[in-house]
Amino acid sequence: MNGRFKPRQYYLWNIGCQMNRADAYRLSEELEKRGYKPTSRPEAADLIVLNTCVVRQSAEDRVVGRLSSLSSLKRRGQERALLVMGCFVDDIPALEARYPYVDAFFKPSDIAGLLQFVEHWEAKQGECASSGQLLKAPQVSELVPISYGCDHRCTYCIVALRRGRQRSRPIAEIVAEVSRLVERGAREITLLGQNVDAYGSDLPDHPTLADVLRAIHDLEGLWRIRFLTSHPKDMAQEIIETAAMLPKVCECWELPVQSGDNTILRRMARGYTVEHFRALVGRIRERIPYAAIHTDIIVGFPGETEEQFQNTLRLVQEMRFDVVHVAAYSPRPGTAASAWEDDVPPEEKERRRELIERIQTQIAAEINATLLGQEVEVLVDGKQRGRWRGRTRTDKLVFFESPEDWLGHLARVRVIWTGPWSMLGTISSSTDYQRSR
Questions:
Q1: What's the pTM value of the predicted model, to 2 decimals?
Q2: In this structure, how many other beta carbons lie within 10 angstroms of the beta carbon of residue 426?
């Protein structure tokens, strides 16, 4: 930066969903355009940013703990800026009173507002922005938000309250961003939305997710496309048919069911029944036989009886999901469910959560074991403990050893060991054409 011997440094702490990950990446990219360098040590940073989540009480507790831990650091360095962004930010005057050492608060995804603050802060420090080159290293897999917010009002969910109503981006804008990322080396793009299936319903010409998939599919250099998160109520047959016909769209579906009991689903205001969800998964598997299905489940929702929980457990056993993200219910302020008695004891919530996790671990192990001895296509995104790491089209985590540089390449890997969460393999002899892509 001007007048300094070294560039300013920033520390970015991120927690939460894929949308938060995308926001964090975009923010770091913008800061590095301005000449900032990242640091893993908040005490070394000129600019500290917390990108927050409050979807569950445990996440909010982590945010509060992190904020508290930074208070003394902020007092020791008055020239240091501490900024908070994300779903933790709601009643800003109340937050300012509670955390007077925080310089500014920003709503979810308000990257423009945060950067505007940084400009004013730099001016007060007597410095101007750098015109430094883009320093952010290209990623093999990139996240691209296509919409923000959600028009559903699930009774347990705080996301719609904090992120607002749905706001879809024009297709041309999405295509331009994907093109830029692919030119920089991205080979896989994940399209993001709080409810990605409802994309475009708020735009004048009502484009759909299927239109976005078709618009980016033929971009040269793009090998894989994913999208999340879907809502069972809004998953149109057109999306299924388009995904089945476009070879770059991966066979992996994020489809949260939340409960296997119709009474609980109705109290959650999910807008569908177990029968609807079962039929939807059936249509996906009919058109895409080897599709992996990931889901989310909440246990211990207010009023959930043992019988209703058993209905959820039976659905997990019946559907044989590849991945189940299970969480114990925690009341979120401002949601409809927060006014109801949280009547399932914490120890019972934990018992239900552990039981689903135990059964799902066995199911995942059995599904993955069917790949033993088979060749799978792996997009390599890094190294871990000396092994190359990547994911299959169905989002299975695969490790293999090789002296060659496989980063950013597609590898054909023969699976030699499987577990519930990952696999080991060896490079197949038929990989040369993949490395030349």
A1: 0.85
A2: 12
* Model confidence at 185: pLDDT above 80: yes
142 φ/ψ angles, rounded to the nearest 5 degrees: -125, 150
CA distance 55 to 332: 7
Mapped onto helix, strand or coil, the DSSP state of residue 149 is: coil
pLDDT at 16: 87
Tell me if 35 sits within 8 A of 132, measured CB to CB: yes
- Decide: 114 and 82 in contact? Cβ < 8 Å: no
User: DSSP string of 211-241?
Assistant: HHHHHHHT-TT--EEEEE---TTT--HHHHH
Q: What is the pLDDT of residue 132?
A: 43
Q: How far apart are CA 367 and CA 272, in angstroms?
A: 27
Q: For the chain, how big is the Rg over CA atoms in Å?
A: 23
Domain ranges of the chain: 9-124, 141-369, 375-435
> At residue 83, does pLDDT exceed 90?
yes
The fold adopted by the segment(s) 375-435 is: OB fold (Dihydrolipoamide Acetyltransferase, E2P) (2.40.50)
What is the fold, at CATH topology level, of the domain defined by 141-369?
pyruvate-formate lyase- activating enzyme (3.80.30)
Encoded tokens for 78: 């008055």
pLDDT band per the 50, 70, 90 thresholds, residue 286: very high
